[in-house]
Specification:
Chain lengths: 311, 311
């Protein structure tokens, strides 16, 4: 016997969408993935896209829907205005914006804005992963969420104190495709392995430089000319350099945290960042990114009274 | 009355070429610029391209020719193998490789290789600018040669001790064109002015971060969203951030030099780097890049006995 869903939860990004039917504890009853992110949904209509996925999963007409991600941006369905940090995680979730004109209860979790003159920053979607990362209610915690635009978040006693963005994934892609390093990495470098000694070497070099990576980018090219560095090795070197640089820079900004870093990631990225945190001598607790976003969405639904109390 | 040329000098790069007829003191008697760099010359033939320019300048058939730049790379006319640093500048110039099979005396200045395991690096062309930068024979000097791939060189008592490459110009171009920052900078940002307060602000922020620029790239995007940073201002911010990061990183690597930094540059880049060195509190001596490469080529011709002794 299949349990009745308590809520539909969506992580609705710029190019992709993931949707789940969840019970009140966050258990997955159904799942859909689609390429109809914000860009597609702006053409087809957000409501149409949503109902298509809900219908395909057999969701009841009255099932409430909680959404996070770029669907809540100014270019999205409705704008869920940024919450300015510092802000308690519970208050952030309760700031969800309601989509009017639907018979369903549909709400979108707001993003976060850091309105510092010297370090302005924004996130949208990661705040929900953060809420589902299982952070202890007390103490100071550092959270690392790697990706195209990696986010590091400092949380103290359940309040987001500040955060930063390192565009590590985007830099890898842009440099591998459009810079002189394309000659070093070749057309299709193999996926980078955390076991590669080149990943480790270049990661450790970056860790020793406090986040300065630009001084070492051309060295990857030169290593091809002078040290016979091969394309797959150059890809591992670039990945290690950028990830090591991100970790060194974040550590410099946020200092050492007593608690292990919460590493919210999935798949290959989780392995690479786990290895790199190890090279940096930082203890970490691995949190699956998919589970975190679902747990955060359930928490958001609960904070907004869309489903029952504590599981 | 026009003086007789003593040597033809060419700065022969990947995409462009500059050629001069010079007298024995380095005075310019004729000049040509062309788009027939290495890429074009590989198709047309290097000798054909060279004789075309020499003929157009009315050079005598027996005039010796001294060349620097990518024409001496493995993909060039002949390879002028890298000289490994540390190396005295005079010895580098005397390593010029002779092009066989021509009735002229044609030589190409070698590039430099830094064969350090952790900091491999190469240059080709800048060694000649360096030789013509008018460095005192004694003492420790730091030379900054900004560009697509900026070079910083540490010289002590006329010997190149080491150097590094910061791909600042390339990063600006690649990020402005292919990263999320293209939305911040727009299609055609205005040329960056050293007087822009955004250039200064972001340069000073980078100078305070020891060369860590990746932590601040996304902040330029966020400043557009949160602080209404306009496209031309974002371009100035990115330029300031990258140039400031380069200077901070180079200063960290090479330490403070007692003598002013020799800034070998021309045009807008000379102005921007001059301003940025000022923000960093570093004294500098401006050297025109065009004059430096010509002076270096004359020096190379002299060191190789192609023209007479000291001017």
């Amino acid at each position: 016997m299949s349990a009745a869903p308590a809520v539909a939860a969506l992580d609705w990004g710029t190019t992709r969408l993931r949707a789940w039917l969840l019970d009140g504890t966050g258990k997955v009853l159904a799942e859909r993935r689609g390429d109809d992110g914000l860009i597609t949904a702006r053409e087809k209509g957000f409501a149409t896209v949503l109902e298509g996925h809900l219908g395909a999963m057999g969701a009841p007409d009255t099932l409430p829907v909680i959404i996070c991600g770029m669907a809540g941006s100014r270019q999205g369905w409705i704008e869920a205005p940024y919450v300015t940090v510092p802000a308690p995680i519970g208050a952030i979730l309760r700031g969800a914006a309601r989509v009017e004109g639907s018979s369903r209860d549909i709400r979108i979790v707001p993003g976060l804005a850091q309105r510092l003159t010297e370090a302005p920053d924004v996130m949208r979607g990661e705040e929900t992963q953060l809420a589902g990362a299982g952070l202890p209610a007390k103490g100071r915690h550092l959270v690392c969420m790697p990706g195209t635009h990696s986010k590091w978040v400092a949380v103290a006693d359940g309040t987001v104190e500040g955060f930063g963005t390192w565009p590590t994934g985007e830099l890898f892609s842009v440099l591998a495709t459009h810079s002189i390093l394309k000659h070093s990495l070749g057309e299709r470098p193999a996926p980078v392995s955390a076991d590669s000694r080149f990943f480790r070497q270049w990661c450790e070099r970056a860790l020793g430089e406090g986040g300065d990576v630009t001084s070492k980018l051309f060295a990857i090219r030169a290593a091809g000319l002078l040290q016979d560095l091969q394309p797959d090795e150059a890809a591992a070197a670039l990945s290690g350099l950028l990830i090591g640089g991100e970790i060194a820079s974040a550590r410099r900004r946020y200092g050492a945290s007593e608690a292990p870093v919460a590493l919210v990631a999935s798949g290959a990225l989780a392995t690479l960042y786990g290895a790199a945190l190890g090279f940096a001598g930082l203890a970490f607790r691995a949190v699956d990114a998919d589970e975190a976003v679902r747990a955060g969405l359930v928490e958001a639904a609960r904070e907004n009274g869309m489903i029952g109390g504590a599981s």
